[in-house]
Automatic annotation (TrEMBL):
Gene3D superfamilies: 2.60.120.200. It comes from the Eukaryota. Coiled coil: none annotated. The lineage of its organism: Eukaryota, Metazoa, Chordata, Craniata, Vertebrata. PROSITE patterns: GALECTIN. This is Galectin. It holds the Pfam family Gal-bind_lectin. The keyword Membrane does not apply. SMART domains: Gal-bind_lectin, GLECT.
Amino acid sequence: MLLGLLFFNNSDILDLFDGLLSLKYSSQSICDMIIKNMTFKVEQTLTVVGVIKSDPKRFVVDIGESEDRIAFHFNPRFDDSRHINIIVCNSFEGGNWHQEQYEKSFPFSPGKEFKISIQFTCSEFVVTLSNGSTFCFPNRMGAEKYSVMGFHGDAVIRSIEIK
């Protein structure tokens, strides 16, 4: 039974297992990827491990119902026109971004490995960063499961796991 679809910038095929996604990838880098039809539900934790590219601007982890309805947009920004070394979180629906939330803990460095754990509760996403700091972002859409995850930008994703 196929439980999910992975789309990324090469032609490899990956197996998904009922209730658990565990992806470890090292033969080439995955820099842009969308996972569709894979349920991430309340009480589960998404763990992402990767390496920041050299001269990064930003990278993104999105969790939502579709690419147009993003419940949690996690966006570390290294240096853009408005933000330097800050994490910007938000949600997107109806063609509009909502109120941004800023997190000052920034354990990301070019060329260094990172680990992000996102625990999904009914009311919020609880994020734990590589340096042990945590913060919460509200589940503004109120859903108990989301089926689309996106990974984009200046990070090479090494592994993704949902437990």
